[in-house]
Amino acid sequence: xxxxxxxxxxxxxxxxxxxxxxxxxxxxxxxxxxxxxxxxxxxxxxxxxxxxxxxxxxxxxxxxxxxxxxxxxxxxxxxxxxxxxxxxxxxxxxxxxxxxxxxxxxxxxxxxxxxxxxxxxxxxxxxxxxxxxxxxxxxxxxxxxxxxxxxxxxxxxxxxxxxxxxxxxxxxxxxxxxxxxxxxxxxxxxxxxxxxxxxxxxxxxxxxxxxxxxxxxxxxxxxxxxxxxxxxxxxxxxxxxxxxxxxxxxxxxxxxxxxxxxxxxxxxxxxxxxxxxxxxxxxxxxxxxxxxxxxxxxxxxxxxxxxxxxxxxxxxxxxxxxxxxxxxxxxxxxxxxxxxxxxxxxxxxxxxxxxxxxxxxxxxxxxxxxxxxxxxxxxxxxxxxxxxxxxxxxxxxxxxxxxxxxxxxxxxxxxxxxxxxxxxxxxxxxxxxxxxxxxx
Length: 440
Prior knowledge:
Structural class: alpha/beta
């Protein structure tokens, strides 16, 4: 009898606990706020991301998401990434509104890629947003951008905006990227070149990074007033080069990285005269796409990237004694002696040039990485003195003899495919070494 009473008591306790737990769960659910969605496509994307297709989504369950990137088939957050299958993607249309961001309490970074968003909605916690990127959206104005007053990083790609003056309200901006904006081009979903007067950005005194592509730029010299500017990238822009040379005029200039991709006019081939820039002492990285002269004025540069250029034999590369990384891509090198005496060079990357041998590197004893692709290189015997080499990548050249590799004790990665090599014995021996990766 006592045993039956005991079992009944145990059963009663279990039932009571279950009821308490159920009530507690119900109360917890009641205390949560159900997310309301205004864009069915946005909701569908979120449900795939959460793997929740038939239950309520609670706003509180989204609180850990601080970074949100949504495009035409993929969601990335600070927590995970989810990519729709092609079949599922066909079921969902493009997102057309930012309004559903109000279901997220703690967003700090928003990215929209190739959506149908045509206006800037003011997110309920817009002052918390630090980074915003808009790609391929049919926006034609920046109305409400001032509500995102604490944005520090803003990227605008391929959108139909002509008036940039609202950006002048974003005084906290540190990074601004403007690419292919302006009036819609005929017959394609893209933009004509925009017209940018730097006066409309004159209040952005905290800018550290500025990138502008495919634009007609007026008053570029005003950048010399941006004391915090560290990185400047101008790609295929129409610029008055006399004004361009003025961007480093200020003695307080601290530019560290400059990237220039020259837009040559049909009747005139522009040549960048580096000697006309003032105060280049702070520049550590320099990229130029096009012809230039007086490279020696980049005396403190450490990383130099040159593309689509004819490099004359009188260019004094040997004056660049701080140069550690040199990349030459699709260049015509008049005399490979320009590579002599680069005593601090650590990385050399050459692609699609007419270089035939590397004898000019004999004094570059600090070299750790040599990458030469799709060029006319045939003789590498001179590399035997470069004992610090760790990586040797020589795709698609005219090399027949690779015996010198046996004289390079620190190699960790070797690639020689695409060459008419006659004897692979030296590589066959090295394949036994687990510390070396070989591609042949």
